[in-house]
## 1
Amino acid sequence: MQRFPSPPPERTINLPAYFSRIGYAGPREPSFAVLRDLQLAHVTSIPFENLDVLLKRGVCLEPEAVEQKLVTDRRGGYCFEQNSLFLRVLQSLGFSVTPLAARVRLGRSREEIPPRTHLFLRVDIAGTAWMADVGLGGLSLTSPIRLDVFEEQPTLHETRRLVPVGRGLIHQARMGGEWIDVTEFTGEEMFPIDRELANWWTSTSPNSKFAQNIMVGLARPDGSRFALNNTEFVHRRASDGALLANETITSSERLLDLLATRYGLRFPEQTKFGLFGL
C-alpha cells in the first residue's frame, strides 16, 4: 500500500475536553494500549448519526466545527466527522496516522462499485500498521485491527478479518456465523480536498443513503450495540447477534425521547427529521 506523509494537526485540539467527553483518564503516550483504550472509549461515548443531513443543516468539516459539534455540543456524526476528530486527537498525542479512503460494501454485492466516500485511519506503532475506524455506523471498530495479517482478529464486539481482493483489501465482520463485507480499500490516502468533496456529495445528494435514512448507532462497553435504522430500534449482542430489545418507533415524540435516553442526543421538542413522518 502506497503511503504519503501525514500533515501535522491543522489546529490545536482541546484534549481535556475530548477526554472528558469520552470518559478517558488514562495515559497519553503514543502506544498501542492508549490507541486501543481511546478507540473503545470514543465509540462507546460518541454516537454515529446522520441527523444534521436530514435537518438540512449541512456537515462542516472545519476542525473547530467538528470539535464544537462532537465534543462541546455532545452530538455525534458520521465518518468524516468522527475519524477527522480522532485523527487530530491521535496526532496531538504523537501517533503516526494516515487518513485513508474506502468504499462501503455493507449490503452491496461484489459486482457493485460503491462510491469511495468513507474515511478511516491507519496508525503505525513500532513498525506495525493498525486500522482504526470510529465512524463506521453500527460496525465501528471497538478495537484496532492489524492491516498486515489476514487471519481472524477478535474485538470486544465482532470478530474481523481482511481479505485480499484484486489490488486491495476487503474488511469483513463475522455476524451470526457469517462473514459480511464491510469496506474495501487500496491504502490510498484521503487528503482534505478528497474528504471535502466526498462529504459534500454524502451530505447533499438526494441519492446519498444519508439523505434517505435515519441512522444512529452506538457501541456499548458490554459488547452490545444500539442501532436505529429509520423506524426500527434494536439492541443486539454483537458477538452472536442475539436480540436484546427491539422497538418500532411510531411518533416523533418517541423518537426524540429514544435519541435522548439511548444516545444522549437532545433536540428541541418540535424537531422533525422529514422521514417516515418523524
## 2
Amino acid sequence: MRELYVSFGAFIGRYNGRNPDKMFEIAESITCDGFEFMMYNDWYPEIDGIIRRVTDKSLPIKTFHADKLIGEFASLGDFSEARARMKKNCEYAHALGADKIILHLWNGKPSDNDFENNIKVFPYLYECADSLGMELLPENVVCAIGSPIDRLLELSDIYPYAKFTFDTKMSAFHDELDAVYSKERRRIWDGKISHIHLNDYAGGYKNWSTLKTLHIGRGDIDFDEFFCFIKSVNYSGTYTLECSSLTETGELLLSEMRDSVAAARKYIENAKGDKI
C-alpha cells in the first residue's frame, strides 16, 4: 500500500487544550493519504459529537490510535476496564472508517513489569477489533524492564496471528535499531509489521530528558539505512508521521510537518533495499 498518513496527535495536546477543532485546520493544510485519529482520555464525554463532525467533513481517518490508558489498565491487571475501553475505542474507530487500531498494550508506570497480564488480555482486545473487520496493532512502546521488540516477538510466539506497529523513535530510544536489523530479530518483519510510525529521536539509551518525537532529519536516526532495510524485507504496509508539531504556546508547526511528509515520501520511493 505504502500510504503515508499524518497523526492528529502530533498537533493536539495539553498546550492547546486538546482542542478537537484543530483536526480540521490540519486537514486543510497538510497533503497526505489520510490521518491517524488520536483518542484522548478526556474526549469520552464528547466523542460522539467529534465523530459526527469528522464524518460530516469526510476527513479520511485511516488509522485510529486507541486510548493509551487501555494498556495501563492491562498492565495493572484491571482486565475489566481494559476490555470496556477497548470495546468503546473499536466502536469509535469503526464509525470513523479506520481499518487499523494502534494500541499501547502496556503503558505508563506499570509498563511491562507484569507482562503476563498484557499477554493474558490480548486475545480479548484483538477480538474487539477483529469482530469489526479491523486490525489491532500493538506498538513497540517504551518498556520499564524489557525490550520493546522482544516483547512483540514474545507476543507473536504465543499468538501467531498477532500483527504490530513499529515505531522508529521508540526503537531508537531503546537503542535497538541494530538489533531489529539482526538475523535474530528480523523475523518480526515476516508479515508481522503492518504499520510504521515515522519519527526521529536525538538522545542516548532511555534518555528520558530527550524523549521527544522529532521531525525527520532532526535527530540521530539513519533513515537511509532504515528504509534500505525495510525495502530489503519487502515491507509494503502503511506509515504515519507522528513528529511533534505543537509549541508550548499552542502554535501548529504545519510547515515542519509538510517538510517531513516530503522527506518521508522521498525515502519511501527511493529506498534501495540492498541492506543485508
## 3
Amino acid sequence: MPTKSANRPGFTLIELLVVIAVIALLIGIILPALAGARKAGRSAGCLSNLRQMAIGCLSYANDNKEGVIPSFNMTGIDTTEPLDGWGPILDRDGYIGAPAQNTRSVFYCPETVDVAGVASGQTGTDPNNPKGWHEWPFVRTGSANEPVTIPTLGFEKILRVSYWMNSINPIGGTVVVEQDLHYSGSVGYGPGSNGLYVKQTKLNAFVRPHQLIALADGVYVGRQRDNQLGQANSRIGYRHPGNGKAAANTGFADGHCRPIGGKEFPRAFGGSNDPNEVIAENSNGKPSVFANPERAMRP
C-alpha cells in the first residue's frame, strides 16, 4: 500500500524555475535598497562627526576669549616648521579625542576614499583626491607634505583627517592679508604684501554664523575659489547623495550641519570665476564662505 509521502506531488521543473526567478527578482530589488540604506547610514555618521567638530570649535572659542581655532599656526610666509592643524588642536586640548592615524575617528568621514588627497600640495583634477584624507601635523618638504609629530607642543600623534576648514591659507606666497575674511586662518602667516600678519579670527567677525561655512567633507583648508564639483584643485569632497546629486556634508559656524550640492557650494572670487555668480552664491539667505559677505563682496 503506498505511503502518504509517496503520493505527495513534487515540484515540476517549471515551478522550480519560477521560484528561482522570483527569488532573483527579490534580491535585485532588495540589494540596491540595502546599499542605499548603508550609504544613508554613512552619511548620517558623517553629519554626526561634523556636529561634534563644530561644537568642539565653538567650545574652543568660548574657552579662548572668542578666538576661533586656527586652521594651523605658522611663522613667516613659506615656513619649513611643522604645522599643527585644527584637528590635532581639538584633540590635544581635550575637545575631541582621536586615535593616531585611525579611520574610525570623528575626524574621518565613513565615505572617505583611501588616498592622500593633498600629498603634493594640490588635489589637481583627480576626482578622488578631494574625497581623500590629509594627515596632521605635517611639514612642507618642497612640494610634498610629510606627517610629523610636535612633542614640544604636545602633539604626540598624527591624525588622519578627511574634512576641510574654511580659512585663509596663503602659505607659500606673498599675498594681501585680509583679516577675518573667512571662518579661520593660518595664524602667524606674514608679512603679506600689505605688511599685515594673519591673526586669530574672533567670533564677533561673523555677521551671520548660521550661514557661514566652517567645515565640510574634503581635505586640508582654503582654496575657496575652486569649491564646486568638477573644478580643478577643489578641496571639497562630494561624498554623499543629496537630492539625486553629489553633495558635501557641511558644518556651519553656529554648530548646525547639512549637505550642500556640488553646484550650489559657494565660491570666492578668483581664477575664472564670474564675480556676479560669486555674489549670487554668497548672497543673504544662502551659505557663504565669507565671514562678512557684504564687506567681502563690496566693489
